[in-house]
Amino acid sequence: MILTPIEFGALVLGLIVIWVSISLYRLRPILNFAKNYKGYKFYPVLGNYLTLWKRDLYKVHLQTTKELGLPCNLWFGHNYYYLTDDLDVIKVILNHPATIDKGKLYDQLEIVFGDCLLLVSGDTWKDKRKFFSKSFTQSKLTGFVHHFYQNSIVLLDCLKNSGDGDIFHVMGRYTFDSFCDSFLGKNYGLQTNAKNKFIERIDELQAFAGNHFLIPVSFYLPIRLICILGSGTRILKTVNELKQFIKRIIDNKKDELAQNPVVDNQLSFVDIMMSDNQNLFPPEMIQNEFFLFATAATDTIANTSSYIMILLGIYPDIQEKVYEEIITEIGKDKPIVPEDLNRLKYTERFMYESMRIIPAVPIIVRYTTEDIPVGSKVIPKDVNVSISTMNVHRNEKYWPNPMKFDPDRFLPEEVAKRNPYCYLPFSLGARNCIGKNYALLSLKVVIANVVRNYKITTKYKSIEEVPLRSYITMRAAISPDLHFVPRN
User: What span, in angstroms and rounded, lies between the C-alpha atoms of 336 and 331?
Assistant: First the structure.
């Protein structure tokens, strides 16, 4: 039997009505939970789209929390997000075995990174985390300081010649070269090769993910199908371009290892995966994991170091204290070694305060795979619990006068007074950032070498003047006003 267009349309409409009815029926526990909290009007299929469609992810969280307060509800289609800055909830969510999975927000990254450490769940994640942790021991990280320093020397020339260039891209090239030096033993020279657009392409991917996350079709269709349509075809080309670049790096390393095997105590996770003789690590897995780590290190450290430079410009008195400590503890021209970094106590406190006021990752999302008791309430199964890092870090309940920039908040006696869950730049719990100590060492080196060589200035007079945006990580919405003046 051939259906007429009207009959076919009626059939499709009927199937949609049945699907919506079944979906809403299954959502009853979550709908009952959500009634206890403020939220925008929920529409079947659309969720809160009619309210949120003009906002990027940063504005969603910033404006939503201002308009509704916390905790509150957000609906992306029929995916429910419970936004909170309550430390009791945060502690449970970051440590409960049934919330080890990342939220649905991260599903769009699968097209880029596949089944990588960031996206897998359960026992698979535990096995991968255990494997990769061996490459981030303190002894191995200490050995990376030399690479950070050597690349920071190149960075000094790049900053001198950057003019009005985007500081985020400049710092991104530095962090990528440092990462490859550290884990591959080879420098790919992005800092001196303006033709390589790896950093810019990563920006494009973030923008695509952020812009498409709030489109209703993305609530229900796989990201791969969405990418076949409309502007997604360009993103598929970008993903392929990036993967081809990473593949060339991996292939070069394989050839190098075949000719010059690395001794066991020098092996990084890349070396181990590539030296595998039991086929435990297929080529696609090696590529995905390297792509993830390279991108994560490049993006988060580049963004953090960039707004650290902006903050140094905003607060010249603090910049001077950092400078004086660096000159006292390291000197003007001495190569930077690991022992030097341990003595930079004020610089370290400045770093921590920078990551408080502008966290690199403004939200942490975990997915509940069962009902989670938290105090007097129970968060239902299948909820995306969204921890608003920005709100936690700027909450006056936890931080007196939160918008005041004060590195001495991180004096040992002040830290001892606070709940540890009010500071989450690297998250906490089992699924915290595996590269935390790598990032801190890299940041210390780049701050020390840049500040002892340049005085940093900006037109901005306060943090509030810096326009921010976030898709996945936080950065300035436009190329910020920033100038590097050589010191005598």
Answer: 9
Cis peptide before 71 (omega within 30 of 0): yes
228 and 112 Cβ atoms separated by less than 8 Å: no
Residue 440 parent element (H or E): helix 436-451
Binding site for heme: what residues are annotated? 433
Cα gap 221→304, rounded to integer Å: 33
CA–CA dist 52, 63 (Å, integer): 10
At 252 the pLDDT is: 86
DSSP letter at 277 equals: S
Binding residues, as ranges, are 433
Burial 386-414 (b: 16+ CB within 10 A, else e): bbbbbbbbbbeebbeebeebbbebbeeee
**Which residues have CB under 8 Å from 414's CB, separation 6+?**
408
- Helix (H) or strand (E) run with residue 34 in it: helix 28-34
- For the segment 342-364, the average pLDDT, to the nearest whole number, is 95
**Which amino acid is residue 84, in one-letter code?**
T
For 277-304, give one letter per residue: b (16+ CB within 10 A) or e. Answer: eeeebeeebbbbbbbbbbbbbbbbbbbb
Q: What are phi and psi of 109, to 5 degrees?
A: -80, -10
Domain boundaries, the chain: 32-480
pLDDT in tens, 257-298: 777 766 555 567 777 777 665 566 788 888 888 888 888 888
Please answer whether residues 398 and 418 qualify as being in contact, where contact means their C-beta atoms are separated by less than 8 angstroms.
Answer: yes
List, as one string, the DSSP characters of 378-404: EEPTT-EEEEEHHHHHT-TTTSSSTTS
Q: 292: which 2 tokens?
A: 């993830």
Architecture of the structural domain at 32-480: Orthogonal Bundle (1.10)
**Residues 185-214 pLDDT 10s:** 888 899 998 788 888 888 887 777 766 666
